[in-house]
Design a protein that fits this description.
Helix content is 64%, strand content 2%. By secondary structure, the chain is mainly alpha-helical. The protein has two domains: 101 residues, RNA polymerase sigma factor, region 2, helix turn helix motif (Rna Polymerase Sigma Factor, Chain: A, Orthogonal Bundle); 70 residues, Winged helix-like DNA-binding domain superfamily/Winged helix DNA-binding domain (Arc Repressor Mutant, subunit A). A two-stranded antiparallel sheet has the order 1-2. A hairpin with a 5-residue loop joins strand 1 and strand 2. The chain is elongated.
Length: 192
């Protein structure tokens, strides 16, 4: 906690309110309190192959600047609300960078002899119905489960990428978490 001019300790909630009122010292105290913790938390979460778009320090700085710009809309619901908000902002930025790095154009030449990969009209109709069931069931899962499933099957993340994005300690932990999320998805789909 930071001390105010009278020597009393200030909570993050107090500092947020004072920063909203334009007190630069309160904003400075908030940044000194939260940025080092956020940097330690974010360290190593951005995959090496996605660092062409920025490093961890850039992510933290970007999240903090965007939060400061929208400070008037931030609701401090407890002493750790700002840290949680900042972590979510960094996590979202990591996901964006991973997506962006996966969208790079293919370097293979196209000969024109490739077979048509387009599905038949019947396959499209069946797929649309199954896809709707899948999306409905997916929306009922927890956000962490959704992130794992979408990351692996819609975005094509490797288990290493899933480990980094989901904050798991090992590739095996990411794989197990994905298997459990898939089991919950199957249960949800069976309920329809």
């Amino acid at each position: 906690m930071s001390k105010d001019s009278s020597g009393g300790l200030r909570t993050s909630t107090d500092l947020i309110e004072r920063a909203r009122q334009g007190h630069r010292s309160a904003l400075s105290a908030l940044l000194q309190r939260h940025v080092p913790i956020l940097r330690r938390w974010a360290h190593g979460r951005l995959p090496h192959w996605a660092r062409a778009f920025g490093d961890t320090a850039d992510l933290v700085q970007d999240a903090v600047l965007k939060t400061i710009r929208r400070f008037d809309r931030f609701e401090a619901r407890g002493e750790r609300a700002l840290q949680g908000y900042l972590r979510t902002a960094v996590q979202n930025r990591i996901v964006d960078l991973v997506r962006r790095s996966n969208v790079r154009p293919a370097t293979e030449e196209i000969s024109g002899e490739e077979p048509d990969q387009a599905p038949t009209p019947l396959a499209l109709a069946i797929s649309a119905e199954e896809y709707a069931r899948y999306r409905a069931a997916l929306s009922r899962l927890k956000q962490d489960d959704q992130m794992l499933i979408v990351g692996r099957f819609e975005l094509g993340y490797s288990y290493e990428q899933l480990r980094l994005v989901a904050g798991k300690s090992t590739v095996d932990a990411a794989r197990v978490a994905l298997q459990r999320a898939l089991a919950r998805l199957v249960e949800e789909m069976a309920r329809e």
